[in-house]
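Morning F.,

Quick status update on the modeling queue. The single chain you submitted on Monday has been processed. Sequence for confirmation:
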Amino acid sequence: MNTLAAIMQLLVAVAFVSIPLVRHRYGHAAKAAAVAELRRQNVRPEVLEENKLRFDAGGHETAAPAAVATIMAATAILNLADAGLAPLMTWIFSSLVLVMNAGIVYSNFTAVKSVETAFRRKGDPELARIEVAPFLKAAEDAFPHWVRAQTYIRNTAVFAGSAIALVAVSLS
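Structure tokens below.
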């Protein structure tokens, strides 16, 4: 059963690595679309850079998924080696990944409201003028249509893979 847990953890790792890969490949197009939308709204595009707003795979957009992928791969290795710590590490990290991914999904559903709130908190009057829904939609539409399906597949892999890993180590 530890082998099944390891396979699921590697699946979760791959799912998390896919996030920065897609953003790296298509983030510049998303930024260009967002800039065009800002121009349509008569907002200076430089406001993005001034407030460190990005659509690519820089910063925490790469570090966080890479860290999760690394931890899940390391836990998979422990499971494959039948290490005594493997079940405990699986319980800790697979549980954390389930909770984190639920937070990611929630933030995706509440993105417009969250970004509006964040823009208001910055205190920048130019950010506060941005119509967030069309701004985010423009950026999202710049990604290929298959990215939406990839997101659903990734979330399913993360939720199912983590749950199966937890069950597998519980049964071993």
